[in-house]
Structure formats: C-alpha cells, structure tokens
Amino acid sequence: MKSRTANAVEVVAALIWDRDRFLICQRPSHKARALLWEFVGGKVERGESKEQALIRECREELGVTVEPQTVFVEVTHTYPDLTVHLTLFNARIVDGVLQKLEHNDLQWITTAEIDRYSFCPADIEILQKLKARDAR
Q: Which residue intervals define the domain Nudix hydrolase in the entry (predicted)?
C-alpha cells in the first residue's frame, strides 16, 4: 500500500456548503471519467501547497475564490490509468460568482440526493462518509 501512495498524484478538492447543500461538478465529456460527478479541484502543481492548489483550481474551474478550511477526509484511489491521493478540504466561497468554466454542469445537492448522481470512483468513500455524518 505504501508504494502505491508514494507514486500517487496529489489531488485536492473542495467540499463547499450552502446551508444543507454541497456543490458537485460534472466532468466534461472530453476528459477521463467523462460526465461523472465530482468535487471541484485538481492536481497539486510542483511548488504549491495543497491549499494554494485548491484556491487556483477553484478560480480556474469556477471563477471563485475559496478559503480552504479543515481537511474533511483523505482518500487514495487507483484508477486504471493513475493513482490519486485526494485531500478534500472543507472550503467556503469568499469572492466571485460560480461559473461553469470547465465543467459540463454544476449542482447543489443534499446528502439525501447523492444516489441520484454517478460519481467518480475516488469519491465513493467520501460520499459514504457524508451520508453517515448526516445519519447521526
């Protein structure tokens, strides 16, 4: 397990809430895992902290500035083409208006609506944790 994580691509994503709903984004049709749903984010570039990468990715993909807060969860997932180590941050929008700059669609959903959407496999563990948190 350690060797897979060592070779994993570092990826960050944002769990952005608006009252009882959180933001999900549908991947574009021309990318890997086309049209699946995910949390906004992307790869950490060389020399960037995870927080800096999250701020950059949200600007590039949504046109908003976010404030990364605590880490909600970290997940390592192996796809056929790559292994990702995903750090999901709780985050809030501090400036800007949401725009679909890269995604096919954006939705605000509740945890009760999760099963209506097809998510990227790396997000399944995160979604289960969200559902369990709300089941308490």
A: 7-132
Place of tokens 């605590």: 70
Residue whose structure tokens are 């994503």: 13
Q: Say how many residues make up the chain.
A: 136
Q: Cβ-count burial of 16 within 10 angstroms (0-12 exposed, 13-18 middle, 19+ buried)?
A: buried
> Under a CB-based contact definition with an 8 Å cutoff, are residues 60 and 40 in contact?
no
Only one residue has tokens 């941050």, namely: 89
Q: Give the residue carrying structure tokens 């500035």.
A: 65
Predicted TM-score of the model (pTM): 0.91
The partner residues of 48 in beta bridges, in order of sequence, read: none
Residue with tokens 């908003």: 64
Tokens of 109: 């959903």
pLDDT, tens digit, 9 for 90 and up, residues 101-116: 999 999 999 999 999 9
